[in-house]
Amino acid sequence: MANSLGTGVIVGRFQVYDLNEAQLELIESVKAAHDDLLIFLGSSPAPSDQNPLEFPLRAEMFLNRLGEDVNIFEMPDHPDDRIWSQELDRLIMSAHTPNPVVIYGTKEGFVDRYSGKYRAEELEVNPQDIPDTLEVDGIKHLSSFRAGIIYATLRRFPTVYPTVDVAVFSKGYSRLLLARKPNENKYRLPGGFTDPTDESYEMAALRELAEECGDLEVSGLLYIGSHMIQDWRYLGSLDGIITHLYVCELEYGTPEPSDDIEELQWFDVSKLEKAQFVPEHQELWSMLKSFLEEEL
């Protein structure tokens, strides 16, 4: 910690539901070393799991813990660190603070990225001092907690969840493999949600096929289009599902139902009807029929 007067500037996100004792000690140590203290809170234009709280909510958190005399500013993110550093310098100068100015922040989050004119010093933060989970047990005001969950959910951008569905045909495209889930009396294509670990939609399609149908070897995996899925779980919601439809031919293996699939059955393509599919997959069958008419 620098032993100087002038202005101490703390730059951070402080995406926490409340300041803990370790954070308060760091803030007080900077405050004690300077005549003036400025706090800049990083602000992202897109809510995410890394940036769940808007600036006003975090500013209020500081005011509640440090008092009304603390100077808190919003520091919007920018994709260019150089431009971001220049903007931070401009905001510091506009605050008419005593010189010299020393800026404090974490090494990776600030010091290694800042290229402005002021001296930057690392705040040594122990990750163990900052809990990464919030336990419901012990929360005194559950109504406020529930309000926070609703607020955070409504603040999100509407989300389109990507899924994959796979039409597995027998050789010559004469039969189509369909799956049935428990408590359903109609059939669907094997498939499911993509995972962040999937390197491509093709990989997601093969993974889902293996999870639901067992160890199969397929050939000619081909993407034929996408379509909005009218999934009952999202009726009335701003969120939704768009699936990516693939076709392939079975080379080897015997389909065995797994995961959340209760039954797998081969259907004669020439006799298959739209009504045999669950409602959310009926348009996928229309896409498959168009594909078969064009290709065969």
What does this structure look like?
The protein is built from seven helices and eleven strands. Strand 4 (101-105), helix 4 (107-111) and strand 5 form a beta-alpha-beta unit. The mean pLDDT is 90. By secondary structure, the protein is of the alpha/beta class. Strands 6, 7, 8, 9, 10 and 11 form a six-stranded mixed β-sheet that branches. Helices cover 28% and strands 27% of the residues. It has helices at 21-32, 55-66, 81-94, 107-111, 142-155, 201-213, 282-295; strands at 7-12, 36-43, 71-76, 101-105, 119-122, 160-169, 175-180, 191-193, 217-229, 240-252, 263-268. It is elongated, with a radius of gyration of 28 Å.
Summarize this entry quickly.
The protein is an alpha/beta fold and about 300 residues long. It has helices at about 20-30, 55-65, 80-95, 105-110, 140-155, 200-215, 280-295; strands at about 5-10, 35-45, 70-75, 100-105, 120, 160-170, 175-180, 190-195, 215-230, 240-250, 265-270. Strands 6, 7, 8, 9, 10 and 11 form a six-stranded mixed β-sheet that branches. Strands 3-2-1-4-5 form a five-stranded parallel β-sheet, sandwiched between helices.
Question: How are the secondary structure elements laid out?
Answer:
Blueprint: E1 7-12, H1 21-32, E2 36-43, H2 55-66, E3 71-76, H3 81-94, E4 101-105, H4 107-111, E5 119-122, H5 142-155, E6 160-169, E7 175-180, E8 191-193, H6 201-213, E9 217-229, E10 240-252, E11 263-268, H7 282-295
Parallel strand pairs: 1-2, 1-4, 2-3, 4-5, 6-10
Antiparallel strand pairs: 6-7, 6-8, 7-11, 9-10
